[in-house]
Specification:
By secondary structure, the chain is mainly alpha-helical. The chain has one domain (8-120). It has one helix at 3-120.
């Protein structure tokens, strides 16, 4: 080939070299973008992960609080039932005691009345007198 062919080959060679260099630069830029994207996604997922953990923690805390409230409520109901039972038992015991007192009072009165009758009646009078 002549000088024109030589120039064309030179241009073609320069063009190819330039193309290769350009492709390498593009590839490097793409790699850079991939790294940035990966980093950004990792941050995003970390953030999402911590937000999710926070939501789960709050839900667990809420559940725990509800369970504690239910248990406390049940304990209070049980306590109230026990207190009512104790009160009822005390009341019944008091009632029994009152009835016993009334019976012993009635017995004492009958005994006194009987003694009085015996004292007035000469049959029961003291024979030694």
């Amino acid at each position: 080939g002549g000088p024109v062919a030589g120039i064309l080959v030179g241009l073609l060679g320069a063009g190819l070299a330039g193309g290769v260099r350009k492709q390498a630069e593009t590839q490097a830029a793409i790699e850079q973008q991939k790294i940035k994207l990966k980093s950004s996604l990792e941050k995003h997922f970390d953030s999402m992960g911590s937000k999710l953990a926070e939501v789960v923690e709050k839900a667990i805390a809420r559940e725990r609080k509800m369970i504690v409230n239910v248990l406390t409520e049940r304990a209070n109901v049980t306590l109230k039932t026990l207190q009512d039972s104790i009160h009822a038992l005390k009341h019944a015991a008091q009632h029994d005691e009152d009835q016993r007192d009334q019976k012993s009072q009635a017995l004492a009165e009958k005994k006194d009345a009987l003694m009085e009758v015996m004292q007035r009646n000469p049959v029961f009078a003291n024979t030694d007198a």
